[in-house]
Amino acid sequence: MSHTAEARVAHPSPTGEESASNAVSQHPRLSVVGAGSKVQTVASASPATPHGIWRGTVEAARPGQLRVLAEGAGGVSLDARRAAGCLLRPEVGDVVLCHAQNGAPVYVLSVLERTAGVPVLDVEGDLNIQAGGRLGIEAQDVRVGAGRILQLEAPDVNLTARTGRLRFLGLDLLAGKLNARLGHLSSVATAIDSAVDCLTQKIRTGVREVGTEIVRAGGIRQFVRDRYLLRAGRADILADEHVTVDAKKINLG
Fold first, then answer.
1. Is 59 helix (H, G, I), strand (E, B) or coil?
2. List of E strands, the chain
3. Whose CA is closest to 17, among 3, 2, 33, 5?
4. How many CA atoms lie within 13 Å of 202's alpha carbon, on the beta-carbon side?
5. Beta partners for residue 41, in sequence order
6. What digits encode the pLDDT tens for the residues 1-55?
7. Residue pLDDT, tens place only, 85-97
8. pLDDT tens per residue, range 52-78
9. Helix, strand, or coil here: 110?
10. Which of 117, 118, 95, 121 lies closest to 108 in space, CA to CA?
């Protein structure tokens, strides 16, 4: 009779410390406290999400999305939105006031401190500013820039300045009546085209220098109270029918 021998290897049972370590390795939020036979496992606390109103620092700023590092909350960083009432656009490094509730997005209510950069009032979409009384804007320098159209509408418009400059590629002026009072007027133009029903000018002293002047008129009448002098290198008077010269005394030659 033959007997089969079975060899059995005894594996040592894990100690309490090893069992706790294995359990901790399978649970990311457990940690081992103590040594030897006195081993305790405690849950590691994750950073708490702040609730209510709290302060934070802007870490990243992109159109429509912010990243805010909360103060006093274990350094938790949260995605946030800018509230509709926060007109000052948050930038990286700004200290902001935030609000959060369970299940609701985090909103940036206002900018408390600005470290660097130029503050920008920014809103999404259209913006209307209405005032029941007067609206005043005072600054050392004021610049108004529009990408497409700048439109001013008012029953009465007043512009006052020491000096002024207007630069246009094209200008259309439409007015029912134009009154201009000028101390001195200088104008330079390549060509001037004007169409007038009636032109009336009152000039105390007039001086014109013209290279060549051509006048086409249905009739010309000139009335001179004192002396009329015409001097030319050559003068021609041509008439289809007749020429009349009437005076008390006529000198020719």
1. strand
2. 30-35, 38-43, 52-62, 65-70, 77-82, 95-100, 106-113
3. 33
4. 0
5. 32
6. 444 444 444 445 555 545 444 544 444 444 444 544 454 544 444 456 788 899 9
7. 999 999 999 999 9
8. 899 999 999 988 899 999 987 567 899
9. strand
10. 95
